[in-house]
Amino acid sequence: MSVMLALLVPVLVGLVATAQSDVSAAAAGRGNAGLSWMNIKDTAGVRLSDYAFTTNNGSLLHPDNTALALVLQLEFSGWLVIVTTAIWIIGYVLSFQWLDLFSTALQGVADALTGTIATPIMLMTAAAIGAFFVGWFVVRGRPAKATAQVVTMLAVAVAGPMFLAEPLADVLSSHGLLSEGRDLGISVAAGLNGNSTPNPTQLVASMQGTMADNFARLPLQVWNFGHVVDDQPGCGAAWSAGVSAGKADSLKENLKHCGDTYAHATAMNPGAGQIATGLILLICGTVLVLFAAYLAIRVIWAALDTVYHGFMSIFGFAAGGFVYGPTQTFLIRNIVDGFIAAARMAVYTIFLGVYVLFLGNLFRQAHGQVMAIFVIGGLVEIVAILQLRRLSNGLNRGNEWIANRFALATQGVRGGAGGSGSGTALGMGEHGASRGMGVGSIAALAAISTIDSNPLTGWIFQARSPLQYMARRRQHAERINADLAISGWPMEQQRRLELDRQGYEYAAERRRRRSRGGMGLDNALTVAEMLDGVIKAGAPSANAGSVLEAIGVDRRSINRALRVMEDMRGDTSVNPFFYQPLQKAAAAVHTAAARHNSPDAAAYQAQAVVSIGSWRGKCPLPMMENVEMDFVNRVHGVWDSPINLRNAVTDAEWLSVHPDTLRYLGHELGEQARDSGYRFWATPDDHHLRDLQNIVERAHNLDMITGPLGRGPWTY
After folding, report:
1. Are residues 205 and 63 located together in one domain of the fold?
2. Whole-prediction pTM value?
3. Are 216 and 279 found together in one domain?
4. Which of 67, 168, 332, 654 is the most exposed place for a label (fewest CB within 10 A)?
5. Which of 519, 544, 571 is the C-terminal boundary of a domain?
6. Rounded percentage of the chain residues whose pLDDT exceeds 70
7. Measured on CA atoms in the order 455, 456, 458, 462, is the torsion positive or negative?
8. Dihedral angle at the C-alpha atoms of 678, 681, 682, 688, nearest 10 degrees?
9. Among 330, 382, 370, 379, which residue's Cα sits nearest to residue 156?
10. Is 172 within a domain?
11. Each residue's pLDDT tens digit, 274-291
């Protein structure tokens, strides 16, 4: 897509320029009427509007040359428009011709405004208000401030009539601040370029000529002929004469006669590489236009900003300058801005002079490598735009600092500790904030937010907050919730939640009555039984504690039981071939053994008993007539060792034995583990712990062998 745009945009511009050139050709035989009015000339005196891309236009026998020539001509026309416009913008802005277009009208408006505002009654009123502040400072014991106010009022009274006589003369006249600043910058720029007697008009034309050479003449020669024709003795004049004559054949012959046969051959044989070269020139030319436009915006903005502050100074000299505080600061700021505008003109002009001087030296040192320097020049222009922006921001900060220092002096206040200038005068805070995301912007955003959240706005736009993301969908969701509220669904949902809670409490009370720990709510086994019952009743683990607390269980006991349960879950194996209730019981016994001497040992022992009870509940007594006791006795003899158990009983025997035989083994181990668990709870010594561990280990040995077979005591 980017390649297509790079091809189409210059072609469209070239079509317009070519059409204009055809009109001019019909009238004068040469030139481009769309560009000739700019009157941009290079240092040889050739107008850029007369430039032409000389090539072999082909014929019916050579249609490929015809196609190449057409694309190149269109590309050249678009490039010439871009480059010429950029160079003209720079010269036009620095010449200040644009300011002459509306200077007379502005001066007339300023005179009318002065006649309306600067009246004797306004002057007397403002002076009376200023005198009041003088008296107030004297009464308050601040003679320094009173003196500063008197001096400021006298200065305004003396300077005011001179300014109000011709309000904008110091800005818009030929000897005004803007023009003087521009002339100073031109003098410095001229000195940098080796001219000790500068003339503003001549120097602007000289800058345009240098830029025309660097950005139009030399790149066009490299594009058209593969090298700089001006480097060949006599060929530069021959090229200028041919271009001025407007005859392509004459230009080719001139180059051939001056001895540059390579240029003549290149012009007679166009190639596709020239199209790519043209694209590079177009990109770099666009960057040049951006630089020219940015410089123009900065210069014109500074000038119009100065005009604005000139108008505002009328109010200050007519009345505001006599009144202490922000109104005097407003006048000082406007005066300082006028002088800083002259500095801006000088700085911007010097910046442009240094920029043109640098590029000129860069091209002179290129020794024919114009395309490489042209690309580098494009990068330099991008950097120049960024540097110019930083320079402008620095001038803004300097402007504020100077205005603040003058305002502090008139208000009789030192500029901070040690005179460092850290203080802020009355009336400067809002101005400084207006340079960025300050008070005004924040207030505007707050106003927008207030309007957006207003119920009336939401009603008008049929959305709760129309500027917020997905406002209409949220409004739709709120309507659905409102309809459900009207229909009684929230009440029905609350009723169901209450019934669930009652069911959880019933399950907890049921386990409490069955617990061997007793009915006391301070017993660890009772708490563990109740917690297990609530969770098995379907209560989420996050809500189980609140159910027990509602019954009356101490919160510390609940937290302890929940922590022990999480430890048991963390130690439980997740192997899908093993029986999970047995694995939980084994993990609970393991954690109880590991924390046998901890302060929470009772809670871990209780969890072991409860987990064994859950496992034992999955082991019902089978039908004894189906139990093969011989097989059971064989297992009894070797079930303490998984190796002996695997060697004594084959997988085929496990798969062929009656299921009730396996159930009997599971029921037997479950009963033994339950009884051993309660003995360990009653007397938690090492003997009962080892006995419980042995029983659980036997069950694990059986599960480890029969579980993967899919036919064990609990997995049949």
Report:
1. yes
2. 0.50
3. yes
4. 67
5. 571
6. 75
7. positive
8. 80
9. 330
10. no
11. 888 888 878 877 787 777
